[in-house]
Amino acid sequence: MDAVDLARDLVRLDTRAGGERVAADLLADRLADAGLRVELDEPAPGRANLVARSADVAGTDRPVPVTLSGHLDTVPAVDDAWSFDPLAGDVVDGRLRGRGSSDMKGGVAAMVAAATAHGRAGGGGLQVVFTFGEETGCDGARALDPGLVAPSPLLVIGEMTGNRPVLGHKGALWLRLVARGVSAHGSRPELGHNALVDLARAALAVHEHDGWPTSDTHGPMTANVGTFRAGVQPNLVPDHAELTVDLRLVPGVTADGVEATVAGLVGDAVTIERLVDLPVVDTDPAAVGRVCRLLTGDAGDVDPGYATYFTDAAVLAGALGGAATIICGPGDPEMAHVVDETCSVDRIDEAAAAYGRLLAGG
């Protein structure tokens, strides 16, 4: 199977913020044709997870040596903002164009190409897990039927690293902040209480806070005010306002402690609700040196880093029984969520070869 051709087919499927079942069906057929046993899990219409195992471990509870994983959804893309069709799936100047090319349909295609080649060659010891809704907080991984996955000591996530092995990532804490006021006519604002103004002050307090900690391995903790909603029309004092904050956690901090810090910054007039709470992923380099060398094709030492984004490993590593995690995929990290997203087709082919080396040597 040609990994680039499969990546083109995947990009042409519209899985922007949903509808992943069409991609799961396409991949299920390819994997089943190569002898893997495939199961689909669709907890909501059109939202599907896929789990496949090689014949030697299908239907058993034995640990599976290697699990390959990726997500099938992409973030939205507004057609008018792009210089080409977000679902183009074409190759121009050596780059696959379209939403999800880097994040992360190129990586998924490379994994399927390696898995099918491994299966057709009679190889075993493989589990594949593809999920929906990763971009909105690992929704598919959290909804995955635990009876579908087997324990596994090694989890490889095909997220965008430019094919460089990465040993973990920051945690994520998403909070909703709500301010409530009193409505009044816009010509008599003194008779009301403006919730928008209260929450705007809270947004600035979080945005301007410079006391977040820094990790020697994972870098600085960050906070991003991502959404803000308030008001109905100009001549009405808003009595309700809400915003969401994306906080990326590093080793040594807890979600409870970070939430308490935010509460201190915004004051008692603002309520806080926790939306997503994903842990830091931090794999011991000494435990996966050989795996990293198989992925890079290099017999020497590797110096893997850590990603700023989160992945399904935040959920799946625990579900697999504490799997060591490596993130390694062909996508360009700088292309994540941008307009005019692309991915190097050479790197997609390189990733398929890297996963193939890992499966052959695992």
Structure notes:
The chain is of the alpha+beta class. It has two domains: 250 residues, Zn peptidases (Aminopeptidase, 3-Layer(aba) Sandwich), CATH 3.40.630; 108 residues, Alpha-Beta Plaits (2-Layer Sandwich), CATH 3.30.70. 29% of the residues lie in helices and 26% in strands. The strands form five sheets. Strands 1-2-6-3-7-17 form a six-stranded mixed sheet, sandwiched between helices. Strand 1 and strand 2 form a beta hairpin. The longest helix is centred in the first third of the chain and has 20 residues.
> In this structure, how is the largest beta sheet organized?
6 strands, mixed
Helix content: 25-40%
Question: Remind me, CATH topology of the largest domain?
Answer: Aminopeptidase
Kindly report how far apart the N and C termini lie. Answer: 21 Å
State Rg: 22 Å
Looking at this protein, list some descriptive labels.
362 residues; Aminopeptidase; single chain; 4-stranded antiparallel β-sheet; alpha+beta; 6-stranded mixed β-sheet; Alpha-Beta Plaits
Task: Please sum up the structure shown.
The protein is of the alpha+beta class and 362 residues long.
List the helices and strands and how they pair.
Blueprint: H1 3-11, H2 21-33, E1 37-44, E2 47-53, E3 66-71, E4 91-92, E5 95-97, H3 101-120, E6 126-131, H4 139-143, E7 154-157, E8 166-169, E9 171-180, H5 195-208, E10 214-215, E11 219-220, E12 222-230, E13 240-249, H6 255-266, E14 270-278, E15 281-282, H7 289-296, E16 305-307, H8 313-319, E17 324-327, E18 342-344, H9 345-361
Parallel strand pairs: 3-6, 3-7, 7-17, 8-16
Antiparallel strand pairs: 1-2, 2-6, 4-5, 5-18, 8-15, 9-13, 9-14, 10-11, 12-13
